[in-house]
Specification:
four-stranded antiparallel β-sheet; 11 strands
């Protein structure tokens, strides 16, 4: 059974930084592209960033230059370093591998 467990969310102020982590079990982690998505209240879920099995990264324009996705295959973990946070980054963040998505973690950025 595939499980994804996110951690690291919380309440921060505008301009602060936060790092989200997602640990995956039940799947050969290193072979898969990993992704982060988010969903703000009243909005559809949107893609944030992905990292391929080879380490190539892609970012949504809204987070490019502020967020960094990385992976540690030895720990089966993907991380999302978020800098210069803005109130519009407030959302529930989800990590994803294949067809599987974590339970989500809240990030709230106060103005």
């Amino acid at each position: 059974q595939v499980q994804l467990v996110e951690s690291g969310g919380g309440l921060v102020q505008t301009g602060d930084s936060l790092t989200l982590s997602c640990v995956v079990s039940g799947r050969t982690f290193s072979s898969y592209t990993m992704g982060w998505f988010r969903q703000a209240p009243g909005k559809e879920r949107e893609w944030v960033a992905t990292i391929s099995s080879g380490g190539s990264t892609n970012y949504a324009d809204s987070v490019k230059g502020r967020f960094t996705i990385s992976r540690d295959n030895a720990k089966s973990m993907v991380s999302l370093q978020m800098n210069s946070l803005k109130p519009e980054d407030t959302a529930v963040y989800y990590c994803k591998i294949g067809a599987y998505t974590g339970q989500g973690i809240q990030v709230t950025v106060s103005s």
